[in-house]
Amino acid sequence: MSRKRQRGRAINGILLLDKPAGLTSNKALQIVKAIYQAQKAGHTGSLDPLATGMLPICFGEATKISNYLLEAKKRYRFTCQLGTVTTTGDAEGEIISSNVVPALSTDDIEIILQQFRGDIEQVPPMYSALKHNGERLYDLARQGIEVERKPRSVTIYELKLIRLQGDQLELEAECSKGTYIRTLAQDIGEQLGCGATISALHRLVVGPFVKPEAMISLAELESMQQQDRDALLLPIDSALMKWPEVQLNADLSFYVAQGQPVQVPKAPTHGLVRLYNADKQQFLGIGQIKDDGKVAPKRLFNYT
């Protein structure tokens, strides 16, 4: 039986979308996929509808590396509405309580922020995509059901005060995978004694993509010619530049393509590597160093 032919363009690469507020990440993905008329696309790490900012969109073979971006550090700038507590931890939820905001100095804020730097424990919010007995927590929350959630360890690599003005507290955080910024804001508000909820959230950085100015908006994309849109796509290996590279001659490339580990002179002794052909004209995929020192294929790409 013949394979069903896929519709759309077979394109490969990564687009750094500046997701607008009001759209789910999946809706933004579908719009971008349609703009590019792409056969295959996926995103790397959801942003809430209220949130804006960097949403890497992976096309074609780039979808194979999306998990590595999901695992990557991320940086956010966010504004906390002090004195307000909502069901969701952001401005889209129902207000649970409104409290008087005490007179706070930047020194007061710094003392509290220090408690949230480094390795911390977070209780995931009910309005999240985590599952309990096969059901999404946010589905249970919408039914008015609350279940016990186990604390999870996350790391806040950096947490700094940007602005304190009245009942508005603006912060910037670099954090590990699995960190809920809504929960971080709620916990900070609780320690301040007045509660807090997210009123604005913008993702600045995802893993190796550290230049917010490289993002492109939906409006800009829609106004461009197709060749100009294509020129925005970053190569697949741009997401993996922290790993060392290994170049393979024609013979070694052949054996790796067959799934066989190969001995490469002067290769790294452990970990993941980027595989290229000898003249580095093509990124072949991801390799892993085995215990015997050989380079084994882990994820190879097909550009045809």
Structure, briefly:
With 304 residues, the protein is of the alpha+beta class.
Task: Describe the protein in words.
The chain is α+β, with helices and mostly antiparallel strands and 304 residues long. It has 3 domains: 13-71 and 209-237, Pseudouridine synthase; 80-196, 2-Layer Sandwich (Pseudouridine synthase), CATH 3.30.2350.10; 243-300, Roll (Archaeosine Trna-guanine Transglycosylase, Chain: A, domain 4). The chain is 21% helix and 33% strand. The chain contains 8 helices and 16 strands. The strands form 4 sheets. Strands 1, 2, 3, 4, 7, 10, 11 and 12 form an 8-stranded mixed beta sheet that branches. A 4-stranded mixed beta sheet has the order 13-14-15-16. A two-stranded antiparallel ribbon has the order 5-6. The model has no long low-confidence stretch (mean pLDDT 91).
Q: What count of domains describes the coordinates?
A: 3
CATH class of the largest domain: Alpha Beta
Our count of helices gives 8
CATH superfamily of the largest domain: Pseudouridine synthase
The low-confidence runs, each spanning 5 or more residues with pLDDT under 50, are none
Q: What is the number of E strands?
A: 16
H/E topology pattern: EHEEHEEEHEEEHEEHEHHEHEEE
Instruction: Give the C-alpha Rg.
Output: 22 Å
Rounded average pLDDT: 91
Give the oligomer, counting copies of the same chain as homo and different chains as hetero.
single chain
* Helix/strand/pairing category: alpha+beta
**CATH architecture descriptor name of the largest domain:** 2-Layer Sandwich
The best one-word shape is: globular
Please give the alpha-carbon distance between the first and last residues: 21 Å
